[in-house]
Amino acid sequence: MRAVGIILAGGSNTKMDVLSQKRAVGALPIAGSYRAIDFVLSNMTNSHIQRVAVLTQYNAWSLNEHLSSSKWWDFGRKQGGLFVFTPSITADNGFWYRGTADAIGQNLSFLKRCHEPYVIIASGDGIYKLDYNDVLEQHVQSGADMTIVCKEMAEDADVSSYGVITTDETGRVTDFEEKPLQSDSRLVSTGIYVIRRRLLIQLIEKCIEQDQFDFVSDIIMRRNQKKIQVYKLDSYWQNVASIEKYYEVNMDFLKKDVRDFFFRQYPDIYSKVEDLPPAKYNPGSDISNSLISSGCIVNGKIENSVVFKQAYIGNNCVIKNSIILNDVYIGDNSVIENCIVESHSTINPDEHIGDPKGEVQIVNERNFRYSL
Length: 372
Known about the structure:
Strand content: 25-35%
Radius of gyration: 22 Å
Strand order of the largest sheet: 5-4-1-6-11-8-12
């Protein structure tokens, strides 16, 4: 493909509460066996982008460990490959990434060494399938300086946490509002951009000279003289920018049409593979409309839930409408409803956690299993 990929996966997110205190948002577990960043990486490799840079910063240990081998996404190649860039102290710079534009600016030498004429920029927290070739083809045909991939949200959707876009009849952007309190437009940015590589280098260099560091506010919103077009995504898209959205995304994978779209329809979604045994269902277990990952041992009842790897569900447990993350131990006779249980937590026997009619509750029970 005639493009190089850049994945922005470095920002912190206070809306994720304890879920992002020890991991980057791009490393959040999704659909039982995947991480959030797997979806954009799979889209890159399925679009035949051979050179991809991942810009990480905040709590990057688990994300870097997940990306330690690029073979899972077919980036282990002689030409191109997967490059992970973290902030580094140099003779000219002593800052961490101060924004998305600054993150690209501190690694501008990577873009200057590339030969591909275009750049695909994408966020590391988007859950979607997209052939970037289709976006690039429209971008070239329209003669735009930049193309933004957008999603038309439902009429009752809250768009106050998105970048909201207004266009004319030709699809050209006439207005871009970042997280407006109120808007008549339902067209939101997915955080995916196509731009010519040389133009991006010029814009980033100009931003750095003027001490401007954010890609959206300092390049898109302040460069109104540029011709910016939209590409409308008509398939599933969601991001994991808050606890509510993270819960909603995982619950969406309990729907057959969503699972079929991601895991049965070509092209595939790839992830790092771990050598774990299949889930074990002991006598007394009862599973309905749930995803159970490898390495789990189930003795109780699970309903409308996603259980991640190596979880233990005790005797007579009842789990409903919940997300159980990796390596969780749930004692006998416990009841968990409408919860997200953090990785490595231990739920003691006979505990009742969660309100089936209330908001989603995060459970983060540190335990003796990992004490010295």
